[in-house]
Amino acid sequence: MNLLEGIRIALWSLLANPLRSFLTLLGMIIGVTAIIATVAVINGLNLYVQEKLITLGPGTFEVSRFGIITSHKKFLDAIRRNPELKLEDVPLVRERCPSLDLVGAKVYWGGDVRYRNRAVRSVGIKGASAEIMALENYEIETGRPISPEDDGRSAAVAFIGFDVAEGLFGTLDPIGQEVKALGRRFEVVGVGVKRGSVFGQSRDNYVVVPINTFRKMFGGRMSVQIVCRAERPEEIETAMDEVRVVLRARHKLRYEEEDDFGFVSAEALNSLWKDLSQTIFQVALFVVGISLVVGGIVIMNIMLVSVIERTREIGLRKALGARKRDIVWQVLTESTTLSIVGGIVGTALGFAAALLVEAFSPLPAAIEPWSVVLGIGMTAVVGLFFGAYPAVRAANLDPIEALRRE
């Protein structure tokens, strides 16, 4: 029997017993669907994180009181140990770090923003130096950004996000209008370009005011975040070391003491996300592995039943001269074909699941060709492995005894 004949018999068996075939392949289908959908969502999230979450450009990094916190214990330790960063640290960093091209500072708050009888709730209000507008790539829809002169004279001006402008002013030109935020009135000088949402949360629901204006309203006790950009992106590590030396000297830390501040960079965020996504993928592979093993066991049982049902056929073939390897080849071809059919169906369902996730949730999906090859390849291996025992059992049948079987 050649390969095509074995495949034909396997496909005929599938069509002849559709319910049994579905139940046989269910484990394979679930496993491959899971791996295709998981890889698609994780890959889509990788692109999403790159494009929308990691807003720091090449060579840019932040220095903050906490840095990247990966556990509750570290957070509590940082609160207890790390002092707040001051706005007064910024000129020192700017003066004593020759590798830096641009240095700015920012601080966050939140609240409602109003214009006459309209209000936008839960707006992110940021006090920022003029450099932040360039460091964080604020694109301007209309008007102008916060300027050094605004910051120097603590002007009551604001640069607002697209959603805030739309919610407060509708079709009215917001430039020159006054909005009320944090109990104080600000003149709108600019509106940002619409940036969309991240996981359903708007990125355009913000107001930026000069940081000195912000400090006059709330005092200088709040810890600031210092944003720095290296003159050359490849020198980011050198620039971070220079900033580290300045701040350690400011905080009077001894050589053996750890930093009491943290760095956040695009590279660090990428590394953190990759570690997280790899963990998710490993867990998914474990679940997929269980599904494939269960599916393989079901296929093995079905092939054993098939061998029993076709005992006389196998005995006749052996009596007519079929060798053991011919019988083994026949059974392995059938089990592998069954398994691959399950892989193909699972791949199609995985594509559909990924597209549904993308359509009905904020999670993106990007299907990788290698995940298709991996899914179908794994099912082929499972079919070969779990088809081996039925194949050997069929090959070892005594032709005389097999022909006597009713």
The value of Rg in angstroms is: 32 Å
* Poorly predicted tracts of residues: none
Number of helices: 14
The quaternary state of the protein chains shown equals single chain
Number of strands: 12
Overall number of structural domains: 2
Structural class: alpha+beta
Biggest sheet: strands side by side, in what order? 2-3-10-5-7-6
**What is the strand content?**
15-25%
Shape: elongated
Biggest β-sheet, characterized? 6 strands, mixed, barrel
User: Termini distance?
Assistant: 24 Å
Succession of helices and strands:
HHEHHEEHEHEHEEEEEHEHEHHHHH
Average pLDDT = 83
Structure, explained:
With 406 residues, the protein is α+β, with helices and mostly antiparallel strands. It folds into 2 domains: 3-51 and 271-404, no CATH class; 85-233, no CATH class. Helices cover 57% and strands 18% of the residues. It contains 14 helices and 12 strands. It has helices at residues 3-16, 18-53, 72-81, 89-96, 130-135, 148-152, 162-169, 211-218, 236-250, 266-309, 311-319, 324-360, 369-395, 399-404; strands at residues 60-64, 100-115, 118-128, 140-143, 157-160, 178-181, 184-192, 197-198, 201-202, 206-210, 225-230, 262-265. The strands form 2 sheets. Strands 2-3-10-5-7-6 form a 6-stranded mixed beta barrel. A hairpin with a 2-residue loop joins strand 8 and strand 9. It is elongated. The mean pLDDT is 83.
